[in-house]
């Protein structure tokens, strides 16, 4: 008989996750988590978020199984857990050491109907696997029954899967059948476990038992949960349910998220003592903690949603639908295409959206001090760009490549990797006419800014984005330094002038440095002429989304409102089979340097400033007409949003200028020419990019505002926008697990209902496909 292991569980469509291995030391066996005091040896999930395990796609499985040993080896071989509720399972867990087999005699007829039974690793227990009928899903079932000592009925939590290693040295062994032969739970078992529906008041909510379970499930329970936090949840559940067994079961299930071996009898003793407490923890604690961790009341969908086409006439788009697929260097004919190609070649894991963003940033930086678009508009080429991709997915390669290109252009002295204060921002722009910020993991700073604004402290952090915007928008005028900051910087420069003067007086050179410092001193008084500030920030989606939730206005009216946002849809890109980074050729380095320096052969750390005369990038008649259409289209979109009253219309007011900026950058050719013209295809490419960015901003804001809204219609609209945005980002389709994870603040049940609603209304479609294991999987794509 073939060994039954994790591959059979995967083939059955169950949600599985890896467990920490068992480590043998001189002191005995320990958990592979590294904690010598860990009590869940062989049962400890590697991920604290195991309960949110999704259907693994081929790329994710390739990483977890790691057959080549590139990463951590096969993480499922030593042990794996099976999430019972999302795998739609009911598992009868018989523990022989606590009298389970004696109790199981009364359930012999139930056991006879079971098609898959596993002997536990202790050798003294069994797991009886059953499927849950569709009409049973979502209903709360009893976890323990007094008359069945030593038996747990697991419809939530997880169980350790067959062939996993146990602390005893044995493995979980199949007694009967396989995952493919699991039978439906018999009615007598479901009737035994089904609870009578009750209603509970929890904080501001009146909820039934299933909704209460959803609220509790929203509260994380990890190794970091303290004893006091654990106790308070139990006391709050006791208060919510009036001490009923329902609450005890919910507490037990929640506790077992971090400690699968939690003793029910010990918890029961504590439970019955909660009602005697002089200072009880109330039900409001559950409501507050659930909301803090993304709980949202159930969303209801109606069937009369109108999916009408946008009545506003849109600008025409070229047949090469840029950004409707992953962008490619061949989509762009100018210098951006060449730079994009080189950056992309440096990436072991392709990050096309980020590589395009970085390419436009690099070219905009190189050309930005010299060029303006149109003799009337004089639109500058400085960009503010945020690139969002999952941790460990290859964004670092893009960051390093872009930094290398900026250095090749002779601008490294003006490149900065972080921002400490608004004073530093001003000092940098005094020292060089340009400040080019390349900031990695900027999401953490966004979160600090959002927290400072929400709590009313750390005002210096709030001042940073405001100062960035002041300088960013002054590229065609002058930036005036404020009074207090002027004095501080003047004192600093005066000391430097004194030091430089002494060096000159002593005959040790430094005349040029002295002249530069005196020029800086004049700038402080007279204003800094045409400062050029650009910003390129890379971060991962969780910290970015958390920051926006703290302060959605940052995306509407804050400095993110003027930024381009590029988000990689794939969390685990497939590694390139033939990875061969292109060398940075002299031709490309020379072109970037020529754009910036125009023949100035300065030293690497010379002042980064405008050398020579400014030049104008002209706009052709066809391109100008297209830009007029872009303006009218987004003005119409803005008027519609203004009428909806959420304040999102200001996002649309910057689309026209962003399109001109990008069209100007895209028009810069590979070869040096004196005259550069924005053509029709440049505008269409630029607008396709900006439109995708703007649609994402709008949808993201609507989804975030809806998740926090108490208005049912706003919550429903927000969830629909959130689901469609995720699906739109992956034209080839995306799994339900990813959709749920990206919209987790709405709750899994609401997201599933939204997916069904969108399918019913022909907005999206469900597509079946076979993965690398020939299993039938489902994904969702726009129709």
Please characterize this protein's 3D structure.
With 783 residues, this protein is of the alpha/beta class. The chain folds into 5 domains: 6-193, Prim-pol fold; 199-292; 326-473 and 530-613, Rossmann fold (3-Layer(aba) Sandwich), CATH 3.40.50; 481-526; 617-783, no CATH class. Helix content is 43%, strand content 14%. It is built from 27 helices and 25 strands. Strands 5, 6, 7, 8, 10 and 11 form a 6-stranded mixed beta sheet that branches. Strands 16-17-20-15-21 form a 5-stranded parallel beta sheet, with helices on both faces. Strand 24 and strand 25 (776-782) form a beta hairpin. Helix 11 packs across helix 12 (352-368), helix 17 runs antiparallel to helix 18 (511-526) and helix 24 (680-708) crosses helix 25 (712-728). It is elongated and about 95 Å long. Residues 303-313 and 318-322 have low confidence and may be disordered.
Q: Give me the CATH architecture of the largest domain, please.
A: 3-Layer(aba) Sandwich
Give the CA-CA distance, first to last residue.
Answer: 45 Å
Helix content: 40-55%
Number of domains: 5
**Biggest sheet architecture:** 6 strands, mixed
Low-confidence stretches: 303-313, 318-322
Radius of gyration: 31 Å
Write the CATH homologous superfamily of the largest domain: P-loop containing nucleotide triphosphate hydrolases
What is the arithmetic mean of pLDDT?
84
The count of β-strands is: 25
Shape: elongated
Write the layout of secondary structure elements.
Blueprint: H1 6-11, E1 16-18, E2 22-25, E3 28-31, H2 58-65, E4 80-83, E5 89-95, H3 100-104, H4 108-112, E6 116-119, E7 125-131, E8 151-154, E9 158-160, E10 173-176, E11 183-184, H5 187-193, E12 199-202, E13 205-208, H6 209-218, H7 227-241, H8 245-255, H9 264-274, H10 284-292, H11 335-345, H12 352-368, E14 371-373, E15 384-388, H13 395-408, E16 415-416, H14 422-431, E17 434-440, H15 443-455, H16 459-472, E18 478-479, H17 483-505, H18 511-526, E19 528-529, E20 532-539, H19 541-550, H20 553-556, E21 564-567, H21 586-597, E22 615-619, H22 621-644, H23 655-666, E23 676-678, H24 680-708, H25 712-728, H26 736-742, H27 748-760, E24 764-770, E25 776-782
Helix pairs in contact: 6-8, 6-10, 7-8, 11-12, 12-13, 12-21, 15-19, 17-18, 22-23, 22-24, 23-24, 24-25, 25-26, 26-27
């Amino acid at each position: 008989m073939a060994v039954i292991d994790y591959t059979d569980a995967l083939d059955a469509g169950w949600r599985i996750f890896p467990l920490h291995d068992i480590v043998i030391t001189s002191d005995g066996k320990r958990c592979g988590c590294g904690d010598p005091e860990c009590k869940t040896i062989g049962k400890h999930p590697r991920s604290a978020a195991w309960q949110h395990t999704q259907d693994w796609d081929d790329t994710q499985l390739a990483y977890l199984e790691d057959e080549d040993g590139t990463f951590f080896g096969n993480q499922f071989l030593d042990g794996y857990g099976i999430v019972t509720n999302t795998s739609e399972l009911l598992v009868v867990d018989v523990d022989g050491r606590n009298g389970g087999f004696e109790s199981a005699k009364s359930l012999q007829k139930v056991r006879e109907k079971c098609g898959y039974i596993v002997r536990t690793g202790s050798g003294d227990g069994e797991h009886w696997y059953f499927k849950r009928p569709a009409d049973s899903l979502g209903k709360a079932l009893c976890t323990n029954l007094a008359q069945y000592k030593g038996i747990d009925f697991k419809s939530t939590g997880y169980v350790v899967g067959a062939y996993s290693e146990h602390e005893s040295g044995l493995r979980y062994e199949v007694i009967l059948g396989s995952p493919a032969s699991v039978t439906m739970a018999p009615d007598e078992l479901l009737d035994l476990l089904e609870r009578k529906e009750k209603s509970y008041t929890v904080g501001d909510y009146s909820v039934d038992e299933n909704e209460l379970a959803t609220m509790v499930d929203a509260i994380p329970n990890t190794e970091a949960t303290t004893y006091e936090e654990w106790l308070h949840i139990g006391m709050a559940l006791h208060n919510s349910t009036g001490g009923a067994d329902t609450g005890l079961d919910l507490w037990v299930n929640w506790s077992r998220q971090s400690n699968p071996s939690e003793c029910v009898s010990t918890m029961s003793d504590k439970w019955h003592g909660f009602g005697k407490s002089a200072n009880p923890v109330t039900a409001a604690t559950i409501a507050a903690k659930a909301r803090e961790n993304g709980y949202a009341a159930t969303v209801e969908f109606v069937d009369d949603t109108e999916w009408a086409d946008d009545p506003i006439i849109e600008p025409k788009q070229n047949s090469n639908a840029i950004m409707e697929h992953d962008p490619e260097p061949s989509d762009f004919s100018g210098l951006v295409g060449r730079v994009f190609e080189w950056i992309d070649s440096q990436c072991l894991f392709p990050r096309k959206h980020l590589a395009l963003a970085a390419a436009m940033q690099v070219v905009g930086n190189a050309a930005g001090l010299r060029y303006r678009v149109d003799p009337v508009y004089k639109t500058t080429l400085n960009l503010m760009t945020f690139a969002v991709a999952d941790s460990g997915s290859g964004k670092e390669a893009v960051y390093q490549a872009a930094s290398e290109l900026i250095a090749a252009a002779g601008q490294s002295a003006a490149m900065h990797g972080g921002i400490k204060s608004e004073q530093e921002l001003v000092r940098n722009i005094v020292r060089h006419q340009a400040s080019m910020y390349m900031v990695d993991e900027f999401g953490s700073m966004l979160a600090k800014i959002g927290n400072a604004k929400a709590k009313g402290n750390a005002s210096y952090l709030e001042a940073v984005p405001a100062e960035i915007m002041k300088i960013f928008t002054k590229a065609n005028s002058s930036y005036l330094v404020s009074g207090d900051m002027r004095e501080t910087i003047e004192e600093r420069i005066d000391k430097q002038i004194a030091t430089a003067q002494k060096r000159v007086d002593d005959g040790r050179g430094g005349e040029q440095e002295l002249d530069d410092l005196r020029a800086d001193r004049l700038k402080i008084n007279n204003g800094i002429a045409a400062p050029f500030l650009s910003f390129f920030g890379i971060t991962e989606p969780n910290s970015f989304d958390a920051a926006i939730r703290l302060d959605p206005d940052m995306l509407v009216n804050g400095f993110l409102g003027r930024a381009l946002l590029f988000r990689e849809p794939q969390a685990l890109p497939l590694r390139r089979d033939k990875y061969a980074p292109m060398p940075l050729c002299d031709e490309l380095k020379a072109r970037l340097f020529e754009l910036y320096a125009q023949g100035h052969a300065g030293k690497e750390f010379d002042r980064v400033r405008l050398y020579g005369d400014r030049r104008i990038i002209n706009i052709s008649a066809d391109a100008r007409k297209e830009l007029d259409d872009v303006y009218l289209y987004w003005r119409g979109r803005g008027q519609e949003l203004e009428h909806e009253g959420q304040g999102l219309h200001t996002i649309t007011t910057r689309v026209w200028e962003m399109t001109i900026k990008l069209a100007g950058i895209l028009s810069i050719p590979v070869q040096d020419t004196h005259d550069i013209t924005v053509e029709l295809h440049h505008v269409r490419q630029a607008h396709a990019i900006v439109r995708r960015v703007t649609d994402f901003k709008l949808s993201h804001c609507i989804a975030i505002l809806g998740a926090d809204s108490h208005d049912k219609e706003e919550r429903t609209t927000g969830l629909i926008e959130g689901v469609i945005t995720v699906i739109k980002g992956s034209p080839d389709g995306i799994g339900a697990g990813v959709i749920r994870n990206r919209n987790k603040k709405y709750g899994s049940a609401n997201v599933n209902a939204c997916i069904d609603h969108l399918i019913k209304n022909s907005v999206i479609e469900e597509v079946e496909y076979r993965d690398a294991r020939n299993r039938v999987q489902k994904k969702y794509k726009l129709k």
